[in-house]
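User: Hey, my collaborator sent me this sequence without any context and asked if I could get a structure. I don't really work with proteins. Can you help?
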Amino acid sequence: MILIIDFGSQYTEVLHRVVRETGAAVSVVAADSDLAPFLSKRQEIKGLILSGGPQSVYAANAPAVDPVWFDGSQPVLGICYGMQLMAHLLGGKVTRGRNAEYGPAQLRIVNEKDCPLPAGLLADQVWMSHGDHVEILPDGFEMIAASEDGLNAVMWDDSRRLLGLQYHPEVIHTVNGKRLIEYFVTQSCGINASQVSSKYLEKSADLLKKQLAEIETGSEVICALSGGVDSTVAATLISREIGNRLHCIFVDTGLLRKDEFRGTLELYRAKLNLNVHPVNASELFLERLKGVTDPEQKRKIIGKTFIDVFESESKKLSHCRSLVQGTIASDVIESSHSSSQAQVIKSHHNVGGLPEKMNMKLIEPLRHLFKDEVRALGRELGIPEDFIGRHPFPGPGLALRVLGEITADRLNLLREVDRILIEQLKTDNLYNAVWQAFAVLLPVKSVGVKGDGRSYDSVVALRCVGSRDGMTADWSKLPLDFLGTVSKRITNEVSGISRVVYDITSKPPATIEWE
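Assistant: No problem. I've predicted the 3D structure and written it out in structure-token form, which is a compact way to encode the shape of the chain:
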């Protein structure tokens, strides 16, 4: 098998997925757990991967491993923190907190002769996310490639088969990164792996049946529908198994896009045959969010209010003991600690907003899937493409895109801006060229000139990104003519907006949503 030691990277599950897709057996273990059992059966471990992580090797209680792992018994791939730790433990020098690199970077091969990888696997564009870097290599290592800033980006020890990458090959934005990991698994580690099946319906149904087996026979199940792709796929999957025993609660939170509640409700009933109970709770959500500006507090208030509404509605239904949510892998990763070294990036409403004591059993059939896998599952389930291909929309809705206090007027302002952006993307045939596009209403105003008079109105930021699974993203290089048209339409058609800006920040260092 391949053993991945997790040092708290936000990308460990992505790395796990890429290795798993080669068909190799893979185990992921937190760096702060007992690794002795794995050392005792090293003959079964054909390769070791050290993940990235948020710590510095010099930090107090920095996670580490026994250097015996580097004796050449099996190939080792160290990624980001994993590379730095390898260098540190073997006598190299890691420099702290200078020359940080986040997002896209250009790789420059400086030692092609000693490179252990075939031509092309070390592609030009890679994805960085680090503050520290390896300044002096340990004895036995060769510098293979550098970043555009001249930092050591790839190091290799031929005699011990130790490869260090300062960048993240597991993320989609590293060109040929997946191929590099496949090469490490199949060639460096000698595993005769085969591609695993991408039949997500088959795998998800198996997981769901195990979850359903744990609930009371014949009991009713309630599903939290947000109107987005994830919860819709989860509901459709479960409806196939238990039919009208599934009661879908579709809540109008007052935080959805323009006309979205009505249109989505029609889809649920007419095309997906879901047993849907619509609930108008917009006044409740807006009342609880009144005066709240902190994004984490917003998320947790929304999560708790969702649960309150669902529990209230479930009392009207007989024998409801279970709650279904469309939680996916990226929600869990960003909201949870994979080890004591991992950091919470942001709480998701269906992860961080749940009360500690809930009167219903939680069912999450998509928890192991990433966004692109959820879409593939939705297509297998027959959900219409115009819905399944929609850009991701967060469960907390526009609450995350109205920065500062949430009011009905500010929400309506943002709805009009959002409508124009999406409408123009579709008009110019750019909608499918973007993974996610949305507008953010900023808590600032800007001076403008309208009709030869002074205006002092709100500012909106447009955010359009490309991604595969939401774990990394790059800003979309949309045509300037398109951006100009959208800006003109917004400032002309939406009273109360005086300025439009375009967000050109990748993830990392930013997240996709602003809050």
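In plain terms: The CA atoms of residues 234 and 386 lie 17 Å apart. You can pass these tokens on to your collaborator as they are.
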